[in-house]
Structure formats: C-alpha cells, structure tokens
Amino acid sequence: MMQNLTMALIAFGSNDNSVFGDQRETVLKSMKLVAALSQEPPRQSRLFKTPAFPAGAGPDFVNAAMRITTNAAPAAILARLHAIETQAKRTRDVRWGPRTLDLDLIAVGDAVLPDARVHERWRNLSLAQQQTDTPDQLILPHPRVQDRGFVLVPLCDVAPDWVHPVLQKTAAQLRDALPANGLADVVPLETPQ
Asked: Where is the 7,8-dihydro-6-hydroxymethylpterin-pyrophosphokinase domain (predicted)?
C-alpha cells in the first residue's frame, strides 16, 4: 500500500487546437495523461466553456479540473504537467494569449509554498502586475484560484470541500463569493468519458 498519499488539484484549459485535436479533444487527452499520475482513481470534472481572460484575449476556452492522489513532490507534479503541455506544443510567447494547453497545479494537500509571506505577495498582485510578473518558483495554492470562476466551478465538481490553507475557505465558498455574472460565463459542456 502506498504511504503519504496527498491530494493534488489540477486545472485544465485550452483555447487553441493542438496536436491532440481541438480544444475539447486536447483537454480530454491531457486529462488521460494526468490521470496516469494518480495512485488512486482520479476525480474528473465536467468540461466547461468559458470566455478568454482577459476579455478579447482569444477564443473561448474549454476548462476542466481533476483531483488526483499522489506521493510525488509538488515540483515533480509541476514538471510532469509542463511535460504534458510540451507534448501539446504549448508555447509561452504571450502572457494570457491563446494556449493549446494550460495545466495549472492549484494545490497539493495543505501546502503553502514557498511560504505564507511570498504567497500573500503573489495573491495580492494588481491586475497590471499579473499581466507582466511571473514567479520564478512554485506558488501554492495557486495565487489566483480564489479569483477565477473558470477554475473554481470545475474544481467544485471534484473537491468542493477542499479548504484553501491560507484563506480558510472551501472551494465552494470561494466559488460562491464570486460575482454571479462571472459564474454565469462558465457553461457546462459535458461529462468526460
């Protein structure tokens, strides 16, 4: 029996065709690849259609979320997610531009990385700073999770009771605190097969 299994939460997004296919096919294929990282059967969200962020940044996204259990370190999980993005020919030329595949490590257990002070700095960046600044280290939980309906709505399919270790609110509470108009933009497409 595996010891020290930890829950990891991953967000999926695509708004450009990839070598895996269209946006929907890209998310579904990447979900299969990420599922292989789980030591137990993973939980997968439905697929959702969401507008690009910021508005006008490209075509609509297909988004999803997954909950896996793993004994891998956060950095190792992130490295594997980046490898899957590379398989899908993800480029990072334009911040918040169209993406063949975007895999975000949202949380690993109750880890706060690298520490609470650094997490707070990144969590409180202005929108202008978010568009230009990129961390040079892994920040967990993802510093924008509480602001993004396109992450929280799918996340609530797989881990509604996950408690943000800094904000001390569940995923469902964070989702419900968002403006209703932003949540209305997150439209279910289907349940993955």
From this structure: 95-106
Does some domain include residue 33? yes
Residue 190 lies inside a defined structural domain of this protein: no
CA distances from 115 to 69, 80, 141 (A): 23, 23, 10
Q: What is the CATH number of the domain that holds 132?
A: 3.30.70.560
Asked whether the beta carbons of 71 and 3 are under 8 A apart, the reply is yes
Instruction: Let me know if residue 65 belongs to a domain.
Output: yes
Question: Domain limits at 57?
Answer: 6-184
**Percentage of residues in the chain with pLDDT exceeding 70?**
92
46-19-95-162 Cα dihedral, nearest 10 degrees:
30
pLDDT digit string (tens) for 16-52? 999 999 999 999 999 999 999 999 999 999 999 999 8
Is the separation of the CB atoms in 162 and 140 below 8 Å? no
Q: Is residue 189, in this structure, part of any structural domain at all?
A: no
Count of structural domains within the chain: 1
Model pLDDT for residues 67-89, shown as the tens digit of each residue: 999 999 999 999 999 999 999 98
For the chain, what is the mean pLDDT?
Answer: 90
- Residue 171 to residues 30, 45, 48, 70, Cα–Cα distance (Å): 23, 14, 17, 20
